[in-house]
Automatic annotation (TrEMBL):
Top-rank lineage group of the source organism: Bacteria
UniProt cross-references to PROSITE patterns, sorted A to Z: MGMT (PS00374)
Native source organism of the sequence: Sphingomonas sanxanigenens DSM 19645 = NX02
EC numbers for this chain: 2.1.1.63
Family membership noted in the UniProt record: Belongs to the MGMT family.
SUPFAM superfamilies assigned: Methylated DNA-protein cysteine methyltransferase domain (SSF53155), Methylated DNA-protein cysteine methyltransferase, C-terminal domain (SSF46767)
Location relative to the cell: Cytoplasm
The name this protein goes by in its record: Methylated-DNA--protein-cysteine methyltransferase
Principal place of residence: cytoplasm
Pfam families in alphabetical order: DNA_binding_1, Methyltransf_1N
Reaction equations catalysed: a 4-O-methyl-thymidine in DNA + L-cysteinyl-[protein] = a thymidine in DNA + S-methyl-L-cysteinyl-[protein]; a 6-O-methyl-2'-deoxyguanosine in DNA + L-cysteinyl-[protein] = S-methyl-L-cysteinyl-[protein] + a 2'-deoxyguanosine in DNA
Length: 211
């Protein structure tokens, strides 16, 4: 999986737009961390990964409407520039995604940087406990967290997930089991679930707690 920009990774407009956004510099850079970005190719479309030297901050499919806002958030919160280049978490995520799409393993141990509130991070941790190919309703996840009235909050936290597949927000479904609310497109959500159900993954270890 390539970790450098590839003209075939996305349509021209999206690629150009992402390239401009990635290379924007904060108004008052302080010379601290520089985040690296890379394209990761998958069977269901290219993804943009952004990381520092230690943790993965972003993993999104091209075309997501929230991608510009997510890149702007990273520049602001990290007070950092973003440019294309290599970083260990991007390489690790690419290797793990390759194993995932090949049906070998659904284990993701890439260190993550997750910016959510305590509740949001708790939702993301619960998502990572759902076995591959299985689903949970928003209500079931809320009840499992001891917050049965927090169904809408669970939905918001799920929608705010900045690290697709690794934090498997595609495993949440509507109360009637219908596929709903996937920013990468419902066709991808369906594809991912079918892929997981037809694969014979090795046992998935307990996910590493994000920091």
């Amino acid at each position: 999986m390539p970790l450098t920009p590839d003209p075939s990774a996305a349509d021209e407009l999206t690629r150009d737009a992402i390239g401009r956004l990635v290379r924007e510099t904060p108004r008052h850079p302080k010379g601290r961390a520089v985040l690296k970005a890379g394209w990761i190719e998958t069977p269901i479309g290219g993804m943009l990964a952004v990381a520092d030297e230690a943790r993965l901050h972003l993993l999104e499919f091209f075309g997501r409407k929230v991608l510009p806002a997510e890149l702007a958030r990273l520049r602001q919160t990290m007070d950092s520039s973003i440019d294309f280049g290599e970083a260990p978490p991007i390489a690790m995520a690419a290797t793990e995604l390759d194993a995932y799409f090949a049906g070998r393993s659904a284990a993701f141990e890439t260190p993550l940087a997750t910016p959510g509130s305590g509740f949001t991070e708790a939702v993301w941790a619960e998502l990572r406990r759902i076995p591959p190919g299985e689903t949970r309703t928003y209500g079931a996840l809320a009840r499992g967290m001891g917050r049965p009235q927090a169904v809408r909050a669970v939905g918001r936290a799920n929608g705010a997930n900045p690290i697709a597949i690794v934090i498997p927000c595609h495993r949440l479904v509507g109360a009637d089991g219908a596929l709903t609310g996937y920013g990468g497109g419902l066709w991808r959500k369906e594809w991912l679930l079918r892929h997981e159900r037809s694969s014979h993954f090795i046992p998935v270890p307990q996910p590493i707690t994000a920091t």
